[in-house]
Amino acid sequence: MDIHVLKLLEAVFYASLMTLGWSLMVNVPKMHLWKCIVITIVGFGSRNLWLQLGMNMISASFVSAMMMAFLAVYFAKRYLVTPKAVLVPAMLCMMPGVPAYKAMLSLVQLGIDGYNPVLFSQMMDYALNAFFTTLALVFGLSLPSTIVYRKEPIL
């Protein structure tokens, strides 16, 4: 396996810029902006690293979302901030926008050209990839909060 460090750093840089923009847009307090960016660097960087190492998008998104959520819970306890305040802007760069967009393009093309089994298969592949990646993000985000803030023991 070959890891492209410059490609990874470039992707993390642009994801951090996007997180900074979203954080400013949703009025995250200035003292918490760095926490959003650190969470983005850890989560988005780890997902891209897992992808470069050969893991599929769904599994990489799940593991990275869990890492981001554990880091947000840590920041919440350490700096007395709501975990969602620093986690939500950081998670937006993890959403599967490209597969969802390609699924919609394929759907529109099916509407224009009529049924084509190859195009339908491609559309379903993109749509299911986007759906299950989003599902993996949701489960990865909810698991750390469920474990840390649990009121009664699991067993």
Which regions are unreliable across 5 or more consecutive residues at pLDDT < 50?
none
Shape: globular
Please provide the ordered H/E string of secondary-structure elements: HHHHHH
Provide the gyration radius in Å.
18 Å
Largest sheet: none
Number of domains: 1
Specify the number of helices. 6
Which structural category do the helix and sheet elements fall into? mainly alpha
Mean pLDDT, rounded to whole units? 93
- Give the helix level as a range of percent: over 70%
* Separation, N- and C-terminal Cα atoms: 41 Å
Give the strand content. Answer: under 5%
> Strand tally, please?
0
| Oligomer class | single chain
Structure overview:
With 155 residues, the chain is mainly α. The chain has one domain (5-148). Helices cover 79% and strands 0% of the residues. It has 6 helices and no strands. The longest helix has 32 residues, at 117-148. The N and C termini lie far apart (41 Å). The model has no long low-confidence stretch (mean pLDDT 93).
SSE diagram, text form:
Blueprint: H1 5-25, H2 33-52, H3 57-79, H4 83-91, H5 97-113, H6 117-148
Helix pairs in contact: 1-2, 1-4, 2-3, 2-4, 3-4, 3-6, 5-6
